[in-house]
Specification:
Layout (H helix, E strand, L loop, with lengths): L17 E6 L6 H13 L4 E4 L9 H11 L4 E3 L13 E7 L5 H17 L3 E9 L7 H6 L9 H13 L4 E5 L10 H10 L4 E4 L5 H10 L3 E4 L1 H5 L3 H18 L2
Parallel strand pairs: 1-2, 1-8, 2-3, 3-4, 4-5, 5-6, 6-7, 7-8
């Protein structure tokens, strides 16, 4: 399904949940990528997010090309800066790091990206990106030079998300970062869900089906899993089953 359907109330069924697999181009070769694509098609992944906080190889273009040649699942860029724009993709999360105070990630990179994006056919998804402290410093917080929202301060997250929505951002992304010790808390997700109407994306630290279910029940619209699937590809099936079961229960109760 097109990612922008999440914001279209006429096309998106309220309460329905979705699954995005985050692909770090530095961490996959062709064989492992093809295996991941096969699993993702089998288990009905909705989106691929491609990118990372620090990309050290020139592998991204080849990975996107491989995905486009072997899968119909939409590819959405998850860029850390304007250098990571690739017109092969279907869309881009235009991330504004609203949890931090670094102007480069609030607007600076967007100014550099704007003419490229305007001249492309990429679907642009304006997204309020919020880093959450999940037990250790992540690459995202280090590279951005920002302080994550404290884990036990859901009110700060709720007000930050509210500000992003009022500024016109169409998605809120709560991220614990790659290798998080624990996921964004259900209390924080719930507080944000009660404060905004836009779709909520949640990632980082989701490494069990129970954690995935807790995030869904708290109000996440899209679950993002990447790091743990790289280590344990079979986990993809567990998350997919958890989301499918949630959606089935939603259908039964209607």
């Amino acid at each position: 399904m097109p990612f922008n359907n999440l914001c279209n109330r006429q096309q998106h069924e309220p309460g329905r949940k979705h699954f995005a697999v985050l692909i770090d181009p530095d961490n996959l070769d062709e064989a492992s990528c093809l295996n991941l694509l096969s699993l993702s098609e089998t288990h009905q992944v909705d989106f691929f997010f491609v990118g990372g906080s620090l990309i050290t190889t020139d592998n991204q273009a080849a990975i996107i090309r491989l995905i486009k040649e072997n899968s119909a699942i939409p590819v959405i860029l998850f860029p850390s800066n304007s250098l990571h724009i690739d017109k092969q993709a279907d869309g881009i999360l235009l991330l504004s790091l609203i949890s931090g105070r670094n102007a480069d990630f609030l607007i600076g990179q967007h100014v550099l990206s704007a003419p490229i994006l305007k001249a492309s056919e990429l679907q642009v998804y304006p997204t309020g990106y919020m880093l959450v402290d999940t037990g250790r410093q992540t690459t995202a917080s280090y590279m951005s030079g920002t302080t994550p929202i404290p884990y036990d301060k859901p009110a700060i997250a709720a007000c930050t998300a509210m500000a992003g929505e009022l500024l016109g951002l169409r998605y809120i992304y709560l991220d614990g970062g790659s290798g998080a010790l624990h996921p964004v808390s259900p209390d924080m997700i719930r507080a944000v869900r009660q404060s905004v109407e836009v779709p909520i994306i949640v990632g980082g630290g989701i490494d069990t089906a129970a954690k995935a279910k807790a995030a869904l029940e708290a109000g996440a619209d899209v679950l993002v899993v990447g790091n743990h699937i790289e280590k344990n590809p079979g986990f993809l099936a567990e998350v997919s089953h958890t989301i499918a079961s949630y959606n089935l229960a939603l259908d039964i109760h209607r």
